[in-house]
Write a structure and sequence with these properties.
Protein name: Cytochrome P450
Order of helices and strands: HEEHHHHHHHHHH
Radius of gyration: 22 Å
Strand order of the largest sheet: 1-2
Strand content: under 5%
Distance between the termini: 41 Å
CATH class of the largest domain: Mainly Alpha
Cofactor: heme
Keywords: Heme, Iron, Metal-binding, Monooxygenase, Oxidoreductase
Largest sheet: 2 strands, antiparallel
CATH architecture of the largest domain: Orthogonal Bundle
Family: Belongs to the cytochrome P450 family.
Helix content: 55-70%
GO molecular function: heme binding; iron ion binding; monooxygenase activity; oxidoreductase activity, acting on paired donors, with incorporation or reduction of molecular oxygen
Length: 250
């Protein structure tokens, strides 16, 4: 299309007008000089599940996103901070391999042991993230809470990230949002239940801040304690809950 229409042309996707740029020089100018026109689409999942756009990954470009990105790169996800949680990651890897070994040992008499490695690796990554964030383990064979609680919380967290991966028609054509009432209802229910879980994490960490082992939640609480957050009216408490749902680098 660029060969026919040129390096810059517009087209419509649903009710949105989209600018297509195939020239490197023009693209550079758009991302540096005229970058104010570039912003993220206001996703339904981000609004319902991400504390009204406070979820860092999908928040609109603006004062809030710029301020939180600066905090994330310099304090939350810096090399020094990630190294602090190296022990948590190593323990989760050890536990995952011990679990695989025990499965093999238990089924050695049969000669063949079938293992869903995709599920095992997904559980490992999820547990590594949760352990660094809040000291929780909900997936796999050895959760650090009651089995029923682990299943419920694990499903909530999985549903949360699955919803962010959905393509909703209303994100492109807002006027058709009424057709998706059922999935929006389910999103709101998941958001409410998960908020109760995250709220319990925050309160738990506030009560035991003097303990030696620290997690990302402790760091977030300390960072936002006496700091004004630009571009948002939600306050430090809600921002803490929204940011702690961002998976830290493993």
């Amino acid at each position: 299309m660029a060969e026919v229409l040129g390096p810059v042309f517009a087209m419509k996707l649903g009710s949105y007008k989209v600018l297509i740029i195939s020239s490197q020089e023009v693209a550079k100018e758009c991302y540096t000089i005229h970058d104010k026109v570039i912003d993220r689409i206001d996703l339904t999942a981000s609004k319902i599940l991400g504390y009204d756009g406070s979820f860092l990954t999908f928040s609109p470009c603006g004062p809030y996103w710029k301020g939180m990105r600066k905090i994330a790169t310099s304090e939350l996800f810096s090399t020094a901070t990630i190294d602090k949680f190296k022990g948590s990651r190593e323990r989760e890897v050890d536990m995952a391999f011990k679990d695989l070994y025990m499965r093999w040992e238990g089924g050695a008499k049969k000669g063949v042991v079938l293992v869903d490695m995709k599920r095992a690796l997904q559980d490992l990554v999820a547990n590594m993230s949760l352990m660094m964030i809040a000291g929780k383990r909900y997936f796999g064979a050895a959760p650090n809470c009651e089995a029923g609680e682990a299943r419920r919380y694990g499903k909530l967290i999985q549903d949360y990230f699955d919803y962010f991966g959905l393509y909703l028609l209303s994100d492109v054509i807002p006027s058709l949002g009424w057709l998706e009432w059922k999935i929006k209802r389910d999103m709101k229910r998941t958001a409410k239940e998960l908020d109760e879980v995250v709220e319990s994490w925050v309160e738990e960490h506030k009560k035991r801040r003097d303990e030696c082992e620290k997690h990302y939640l402790d760091l977030l609480i300390e960072i936002f304690k006496n700091r004004e957050i630009p571009g948002t009216t939600h306050g430090a408490h809600t921002t803490t809950k929204a940011i702690c749902l961002v998976r830290p680098p493993s």
